[in-house]
Design goal:
The protein is an alpha+beta fold. Strand 8 and strand 9 form a beta hairpin. The chain contains 12 helices and 12 strands. Helix content is 42%, strand content 15%. It has 3 domains: 85 residues, Acyl-CoA dehydrogenase/oxidase, N-terminal domain (Butyryl-Coa Dehydrogenase, subunit A, domain 1, Orthogonal Bundle); 108 residues, Beta Barrel (Butyryl-CoA Dehydrogenase, subunit A, domain 2), CATH 2.40.110; 139 residues, Butyryl-CoA Dehydrogenase, subunit A, domain 3, CATH 1.20.140. The radius of gyration is 22 Å and the shape is globular.
Length: 396
């Protein structure tokens, strides 16, 4: 029995829950894996990620948003916010755990009983590690243009095509993918949601090295891959609705101000270490960034409060992703610029008492405006659904 299995954590007061989780993290999270000024955007992947998540699961602190009946913690949204705050407070490196955050909730909402019974325990125990097969060449932000096909033959689908920008596919055992199973006038129709074993014959994975030197993105190729029909989630040709079911909540977690907060902490450290506090230009820019982060935290809290009160996130949640990612851009650029000659170093640089890699941080911040829906697409959503602007230019 796990440490928390017999305890309904959601019945604790917010402060009791906070202190309990904080104490457990302090006692159990490895110090050598913590985020710091050297790696403020640090991620865990591969064996390190799996080993940590297994430890979390065994102690009963896994899957805060999942209902208790499926092995999760069954926390209210407000306690989920506390949970994520404490991960940041403890310096826990980020893990892209798409099995827990995306596939699990999707199966709970749309999966068959057999799929839930088989996959949900395996996700929690890290027996299966999942990646997301959505984007394709020429079908990134315009995801409905995807062309990877799945043609039914008896009790199987035959899958052919390619996915790209598949995060951590080399570390994964399975992929949940959107594939085209039918042709309709509206391109969002005819898309289905499939669960695919990456060890199936005909699948090959090719890593892509990014500007920071990380190979976290991958291409995944499907060549006559046979997938049992039982691995279809939801109805045939209705995968677009399945995939959209959780997007609002994804925007909230992606929109967290935590990364920008760590970048601002580093900015203040650099200004002190480089004795720039008397430089009016530098201090004006730092004050502007500080005010922007303060305002953004208020906006984030306001939207989270609405969700915590029981309302679903509306289209305005797209503001979070746009603002947080672009603020992170500006902060990482500020840090590199004020570091002067240190900002041109690729790799570790010691600036006073601070050891940091500014190039790595800048390069890791660049794609944030692109993934999970490019900011241009988010602005289109805001223009149409929040501001009520027309979707197409007016005809003469």
């Amino acid at each position: 029995m796990s440490e928390t299995e017999s305890v309904d954590l959601d019945r604790l007061s917010d402060e009791e829950f906070r202190q309990g989780f904080r104490s457990w993290l302090a006692a159990n999270y490895p110090r050598e894996l913590r985020q710091d000024s050297h790696r403020p955007f640090r991620r865990l992947r591969g064996d390190a990620a799996v080993n940590w998540l297994k430890r979390v699961h065994e102690a009963g602190w896994r899957a805060p948003a999942w209902p208790r009946e499926y092995g999760g913690m069954g926390l209210s949204f407000r306690k989920q916010l506390i949970y994520h705050d404490e991960l940041e407070h403890a310096g826990v490196a980020r893990i892209i755990d798409l099995g827990e955050t995306q596939l699990g909730p999707t199966l709970i909402l749309c999966g068959s009983e057999a799929q839930k019974a088989h996959y949900l325990p395996r996700i929690l125990a890290c027996d299966d590690v999942w990646c997301q097969g959505y984007s394709e060449p020429n079908a990134g932000s315009d995801l409905a243009s995807l062309r990877t096909s799945a043609v039914r033959e008896g009790d199987e689908f035959i899958v052919n095509g390619q996915k790209i920008w598949t995060t951590h596919a080399t570390d994964s055992t399975h992929i949940f993918a959107l594939v085209r199973t039918g042709k309709f006038a509206k391109k969002q129709q005819g898309i289905s949601f499939l669960l695919i074993d990456l060890q199936a014959p005909g699948i090959s994975v090719r890593p892509i090295v990014n500007l920071a030197g990380e190979d976290e993105f991958c291409e995944v190729f499907f060549d006559n891959v046979r997938v049992p029909v039982s691995q279809l989630v939801g109805e045939l040709d209705q995968g677009w609705s399945v995939a959209k079911a959780l997007l609002g909540y994804e925007r909230i977690w992606i929109g967290s101000p935590a990364l920008a907060g760590k970048a601002l902490e580093l900015a203040n450290t650099l200004v002190r270490e480089l004795a720039l506090t008397a430089d009016a230009g530098v201090m004006d820019r730092l004050a502007e960034l500080t005010a922007d982060l303060h305002d953004y935290r208020l906006l984030y809290t306001e939207i989270c409060d609405v969700v915590a009160d029981g309302d679903k996130p509306g289209p305005g949640v797209s503001m979070l992703k746009v603002y947080a990612s672009e603020l992170l851009h500006r902060l990482s650029e500020f840090n590199q610029e004020v570091a002067a000659e240190y900002g041109g170093i690729v790799g570790d640089a010691r600036i006073g008492a601070t050891l940091t890699d500014l190039h790595w941080q800048l390069m890791m911040a660049r794609p944030v405006t692109i993934f999970a829906g490019a900011n241009e697409i988010q602005r289109d959503i805001l223009a149409k659904t929040v501001l009520g602007l027309p979707g197409e230019p007016a005809k003469a």
